[in-house]
Backbone:
């Protein structure tokens, strides 16, 4: 066990050595910034899905109609795609990508949950444009039940042996 005096002597000796030695040339690495935060620099950027890009554009342009998560989705007006087609070029979207974006938006539990009989459907301005029919509400409930049944019937994935 080292005593206080020994530690003080060692500290002094190390300080003398540090002063006597020429300063080491240290090059500070300049911080490299990734194009996408959180992406390692040595990993090539993955292309962003054009459908997701389209949804982001729709959310920016029509926030009342295409709310961002965690806000609940709202039932879209029947025929909203036809309302969007004239604006596709202005949004920088092609019709097929726009169609896929609407299809993706209207698929999934978050959208199916909003399809309740009598709930107002909204147009691009977020104004009421019709109501959800009983058949649409029933179909949404059926789709949710099918997804839940599929999730229960799929076996849990076991880790791969190494």
Residues:
């Amino acid at each position: 066990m080292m005593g206080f005096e020994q530690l003080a002597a060692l500290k002094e000796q190390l300080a003398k050595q540090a002063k006597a030695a020429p300063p080491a040339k240290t090059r500070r690495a300049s911080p490299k910034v990734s194009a996408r935060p959180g992406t390692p620099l040595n990993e090539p950027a993955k292309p962003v899905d054009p459908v997701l890009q389209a949804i982001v554009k729709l959310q920016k342009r029509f926030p009342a109609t295409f709310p961002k998560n965690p806000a609940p989705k709202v039932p879209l007006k029947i025929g909203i795609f036809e309302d969007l087609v004239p604006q596709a070029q202005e949004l920088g979207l092609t019709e097929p990508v726009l169609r896929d974006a609407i299809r993706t938006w209207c698929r999934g539990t978050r959208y199916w949950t909003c399809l309740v009989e009598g709930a107002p459907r909204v147009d691009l301005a977020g104004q009421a444009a019709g109501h959800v029919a009983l058949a649409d509400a029933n179909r949404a409930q059926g789709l949710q039940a099918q997804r839940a049944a599929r999730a229960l019937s799929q076996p849990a994935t076991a880790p791969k042996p190494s």
User: Anything to note?
Assistant: The first helix runs from residue 4 to 20.
